[in-house]
Design goal:
Two copies of one chain form a homodimer. With about 250 residues, chain A is α/β, with parallel strands linked by helices. The first copy, chain A, folds into two domains: about 160 residues, Molybdenum Cofactor Biosythetic Enzyme, Chain A; about 70 residues, K Homology domain, type 1 (Ribosomal Protein S8, Chain: A, domain 1), CATH 3.30.1370.10. Helices cover about 40% and strands about 25% of the residues of chain A. Chain A has nine helices and eleven strands. Chain A has a six-stranded mixed beta sheet with strand order 2-1-3-8-7-6, sandwiched between helices. In chain A, a hairpin with an 8-residue loop joins strand 6 and strand 7. At the A-B interface, helix 1, helix 2, strand 2, helix 6 and helix 8 of A face helix 1, helix 2, strand 2, helix 6 and helix 8 of B. Chains A, B: This is Molybdenum cofactor biosynthesis protein. Chains A, B: Pfam families: FLAD1_M, MoCF_biosynth. Chains A, B: InterPro entries: CinA, FLAD1_M, MoaB/Mog-like_dom_sf, MoaB/Mog_dom.
Chain lengths: ~250, ~250
């Protein structure tokens, strides 16, 4: 048998009071989750914390130790509440200053006379970090160690992720097959599904209810890294559902 | 001066592989955040974890110790991957069995002959828990200690929250005033905003950029529990923005 490839794991840290207050609805968790799944990286945890240095430092240190990669979003703008860069520097116990490369990127967008103290805050980069280009508005993200620090604005975050993802270790992509359970309620197929799950330990089988106007719309998702195992489980699930529909 | 009211804080724990894979986009974080803000409860942290017992136990124990309330969503259905109730029982080190009250609720929806083993899983409730009614599909949530365990399906979660919120300690509601910065970029007003923030320590002032087709659309939000302090900061911010627009 081929050597199993070690899983590549990730966490996402969403930084922002406005998410916790509910005034802004986060979209980045879902986007990053999808994009990591496509390249076989397992997103294992997400945290949302306030714009507070101690919270950011503590979450960054907990998550970067535990997973292959940590992606942060938010808090790298020019205003006084944008404290992510300083907090990440503190987490890594490194210094932080205006970075010449970052200043040069900002000058692609701002005339020198407009590069005021606030805008220069966006060029403050922890010592030792690499920059992540921002084709949308020029102010770069950065990466240090296994941590990728990105913008909160979804359009900019996704542009930064475009630059980051190709360079990462990719795991074996997880294949997913979805079986619509039609109008069948979970309670009707759960016992059969559980038995199938017990016989197919190399895949994960999840049941995801949702509601439409006419009632529950349930879907079963088989996920696994081996196409044959996924297909075998799928065949059994479809057969089991058929027996219930008669 | 009146005695300050101690803040009432909360965390949310979203349980579900399907959120972490990106196949399902969570809507509950935003809804719960909004609803808690309305009643003055400060949501301070959100975590998303897989349907894995050790992860759920560990997150439940960390969060319930740190905040006034913990709300969990997901994993209380009838299928084999619904392990939240057992995990919460393990976190509290209590037993778990089919609960007579919960079984009675399920019988409001299912005929006795249809109350199979899988559906009865939804009546498994940790010892000592109270039930949270589910007017949508009858299978109850539950609360134990300061932890409220709710469904993942948004319609059902919100119905459960309807039952839960009135019984909670409410903080003093946080007032929020939003000032649209029009087409002004953050870099133009950040310095002025920072100076105002430094002078108004009892409010929080955040700057939240977003993008429309015509460029940045920035909004400034002043938040605080004292109406006069919020209004005073607002007046200064509006005046400062006016000077920039000339």
């Amino acid at each position: 048998m081929p050597e199993p490839i070690a899983p590549v794991t990730a966490a996402v840290l969403v930084i922002g009071d406005e998410i916790l207050s509910g005034r802004t609805k986060d979209k980045n968790i879902g986007s990053i989750a999808e994009r990591l799944t496509e390249i076989g990286i397992d997103l294992r945890e997400v945290r949302v914390v306030p714009d507070e240095a101690s919270e950011i430092v503590s979450a960054v240190n907990a998550l970067r130790a535990r997973y292959t990669y940590l992606f942060t979003t938010g808090g790298i703008g020019p205003t006084h509440d944008d404290i992510t860069a300083d907090s990440v520097a503190a987490a890594f116990e490194v210094g932080i200053d205006v970075d010449a490369r970052a200043r040069a990127m900002l000058l692609e967008r701002h005339k020198p006379e407009d590069l005021n103290e606030a805008r220069l805050r966006m060029a403050r980069i922890p010592h030792g970090a690499d920059l992540i280009p921002n084709p949308v508005s020029k102010a770069p993200g950065f990466s240090i160690g296994n941590v990728f620090v990105m913008a909160g604005v979804p359009q900019i975050m996704n542009a930064m992720l475009d630059a980051v993802l190709p360079g990462l270790s990719q795991g074996v992509p997880v294949l997913a097959e979805t079986i619509e359970a039609g109008g069948l309620p979970e309670g009707a197929f759960a016992t059969g599904l559980s038995a199938i799950a017990a016989r197919h330990g190399s895949v994960s089988i999840g049941s995801y209810p949702s509601m439409t106007q006419s009632g529950f719309a349930n879907r079963i998702v088989v996920r696994g890294r081996d196409a044959e195992a996924v297909a075998a489980a799928r065949v059994e699930i479809e057969a089991m559902l058929e027996t219930l529909k008669r």
